[in-house]
Amino acid sequence: MKIRTMKLREAHKSGENGESSLCSILWDSNADHIVTASSSDNSISIHDAVFQSNAPKFLRNHREGVTALALSPNSTCLASGSIDHSVKLYKFPGGDFETNITRFTLPIRTVTFNKSGTILAAAGDDEGIKLVNTIDGTIARVLKGHKGSVTSLAFDPKSEYMASLDSFGTVIFWELQSGNTVHVLKGIAPNNGSDVTVLNILAWSPDGEMLAVPGLKNDVVMYDRDTAEKLFTLRGDHFEPICFLSWSPNGKYMATSGLDRQVLIWDVDKKQDIDRQKFSECVSCVAWKPLGNALAVIDVTGKYGVWESAVPSTMKSPTEDIPGLNSKNGNGFLLFDEDEAPSVSGNLSDLNEDNHGELETPSRKRLRKHSNYGDDWEEDCNDELESIPKVESRKKASYGHKENLNGKTGLRNMMVTAGPKIQEAFQPGATPAEPGKRRFLCYNMLGSITTMEHDGYSHIEIDFHDTSSGPRVPAMTDYFGFTMASLNENGSVFANPCKGEKNMSTLMYRPFSSWANNSEWSMRFEGEEVRAIALGNAWVAAVTSLNFLRIFTEGGLQRYILSLDGPVVTAAGHNDELAVVTHISPPLPTDEQMLEFRVFNISHGTQSLRGRLPVTPGSSLTWFGFSEEGQLSSFDSKGVLRVFTSQYGGSWLPLFSASKLKNSEENYWVAGLNASKLFCVVCKSPELFPQSTPKPVLTLLDLSFPLASSDLGADTLENEFMMSNMHLSQIQRSIEERAASGLDTTSLDDESFNLEASLDRCILRLIASCCNGDKLVRATELGKLLTLEKSVKGAIKLVTALKLPNLAERFNNILEEKMLSETIGKTALPNSSSVCNVSTKHDVISSAPDISKTPRGVSAPPMHTFPSIRKQKADEGNGKNEQNHVVASEKTNSVVETKKVTKVNQINPTRPSNPFAKSSSNQENSSLFDSLKKMKKPDIKGK
């Protein structure tokens, strides 16, 4: 057999002088995270197993090295033991510290949860094993019997026994109900003495029938669960003692690590090793991936890695046919919901909930050793268990599948039935089919597509919100049974699920106008179903059940086929950009969908964005698309709207929360949004979507951040402040992009200046509120964010009138710093390599002020405007000239001054009555905004 090697990456620093450390590694139940720890490091690392390039999260609550880790079966609670004698609990995967669940007088060596997560067992160099109730933190029982340090603990999957192993090689079987020792096997494992870098380990098989223990002959010995008789051994090419072992989730394989720096994979049924890896250092711990075929390893120097395809691909997967004992409340995958958790009392009655003979395999011939308690106790225990109906029902479901002990049920089925449901694919703007009713195939800011079934076929109509400018599209008879559609200015695309004898799905595109006849086209997919579709500039996209992203040209040419990383959730298009949302893993036990978004630029053939798509825990994605300005946006079933921004390296900003409206009787069905408004249809609960007839009425809701209730009482001003900062950042990013492309930025320059002036006015009102509320430190922070010199002078006048001399002095210092910064900018300009001639026709003088000196923290002022001209524009727009500061710049060129005054006079008048009108678009796109604006024109004229 060929010995392979694999590269490892550093997770923790090695011990002093390169000494070996006891390191731990484990997976969470969804294989989204890997957790590592080291006895030479007081931190716990939570690594992103999906996006390995992401930085790990560190938990530094222990004072000394971490020697033991354990995750609750539903992966919501992390336990750790340390040399500092403490056992701590954390929320997982967030990592928030919960409590010090218990303490010892000597270092901890092992911790483990029972199969329901309600009992945590911990032990170490102290005398005694503590069984701790995780619900209330009480010590349920202390088990004493070992002479040396306890190095390993394992709960029987049937919750009847617990096995423990010490450094002298002694194994004890404990009866959980009574706390008595059932079997004591002395000296059956290697004697490690005082060597704490290598610990003896034991593990129950997933079906609970065997206990695996390292043997004295560099082998693994299997013992019967009831009689403790030796069953068989796994002996192969380990030439030094085994220091760690782990069963695969289905119990068919075992991974062992030895002091010979090898990791072997065993076929337990055949009792032979089937693969191996050689490492440069001894591997301290291994963990099977709960989904798929991989093994995580970590060596004694703190380096870890993942051994992909640990079991040869020609053999059964290690996660196929999980024993049925693990379904529902199994030993490490998916448990009961939080509201179904049984209470735990000090007598540990819940620990023996599965000890009845119902799970006994019929073919079992070995003699079962009876416990020391009688039938009277069994009746009492049954009565107690019957008082918890929810847990009872789950047990009956588990007992009903006795054949599962022989491996009849797989992990995939278990995950579907027991865990949170994965969200199905949907089309934005589409509503579910209802018999005899018309429904929407698509509804967006441009128009709608409706369909109604009649006598085996459907009647499809396309309507535009602005009927005066949108094309007139004749109705269409649909013989394919289309269930989704997408619409833009150039055409519409339709798709249906697999139908007919050949199980085929159809994609059809209809342009609204074309220079050629027969420009409509269709594609058929046999055995492949279209799940989501999108339209853009001269392209059509479809995502299918095979996780294929198929991209077509407007004429029907098959252009690209890409494989996505997971099942599609939805897709949306805007101009050249296509955004696709997919699942990256099953939902978390907290019922949180794990979604990823990708944005492709079709014309350039590039991927511009990729990352996680956040949704509120317990919710699903209900709408996804682009705003009128092209901002990627999402809306979930909890009523939270998020918009993607380039700030902070690319983040999603929550710009609307239905919970803030405090109206639980309303649901919001989103149609689209622009920079300041959310366009939606308000549905009365429990309705989640509108009817297509009569035509729904759109409601415009203001975008606002879900702010906390401030002690200032100025939530509206604070929201205006944050929204203005966000818009200013977006405008300045657009300016930088256009300037880099050599395009004119004049209109954006003026828009940026106006927004800065508006933002300064908002800041001044916030300063007044801070002064009235005696929040002077906050007022000083706001003063530093003022951009215009005139605004700072206004703030000085304000605080002087309020008789706050200390604050006025601070504002004076801020003003002096601004004037000094402008003076430095003026003197630096002639030395620039790109000096502009002020007598030329250009009305904007380019410069590059130091961004680090920008007064506003959120975004820098536009880098194309000279500070003195920025101040001049503010003075002219308000009808006053502060000539003592701008005389020099005014004398340089009167032409520049005249043009600047003209621009300010053009910008400062009242804004258009339609707040959604596009101010900088060069194309007249017919939309719902245009129709609303035209409806208002007669009223304006009448006035």
Mean pLDDT across every amino acid position: 79
Low-confidence stretches: 326-418, 831-926, 935-943
Separate helix tally? 12
Task: Sum up the overall morphology in one term.
Answer: globular
Distance between the termini: 92 Å
**In this structure, how is the largest beta sheet organized?**
4 strands, antiparallel
Structural class: alpha+beta
Task: Classify the helix fraction into a percent range.
Answer: 10-25%
Gyration radius, rounded:
34 Å
| Strand percentage | 25-35%
Q: What's the arrangement of strands in the largest beta sheet?
A: 1-28-27-26
Q: In total, how many beta strands? A: 51
Write the layout of secondary structure elements.
Layout: E1 9-10, E2 23-27, E3 33-38, E4 41-48, E5 57-59, E6 66-71, E7 77-82, E8 86-91, E9 97-103, E10 108-113, E11 119-124, E12 129-133, E13 139-143, E14 150-155, E15 161-166, E16 171-175, E17 181-185, E18 203-204, E19 210-214, E20 220-224, E21 230-234, E22 242-247, E23 253-258, E24 262-267, E25 272-278, E26 283-288, E27 294-299, E28 303-308, H1 375-386, H2 389-399, H3 411-418, E29 439-443, E30 447-454, E31 457-464, E32 476-478, E33 484-487, E34 491-495, E35 504-511, E36 521-526, E37 530-536, E38 539-544, E39 548-553, E40 558-563, E41 568-574, E42 577-585, E43 594-601, E44 606-613, E45 621-626, E46 632-636, E47 640-645, E48 651-657, E49 666-673, E50 677-684, E51 699-702, H4 715-740, H5 746-772, H6 776-784, H7 789-801, H8 805-828, H9 867-877, H10 883-892, H11 894-907, H12 928-942
Antiparallel strand pairs: 1-28, 2-3, 3-4, 4-5, 6-7, 7-8, 8-9, 10-11, 11-12, 12-13, 14-15, 15-16, 16-17, 18-19, 19-20, 20-21, 22-23, 23-24, 24-25, 26-27, 27-28, 29-30, 30-31, 31-32, 33-34, 34-35, 35-36, 37-38, 38-39, 39-40, 41-42, 42-43, 43-44, 45-46, 46-47, 47-48, 49-50, 50-51
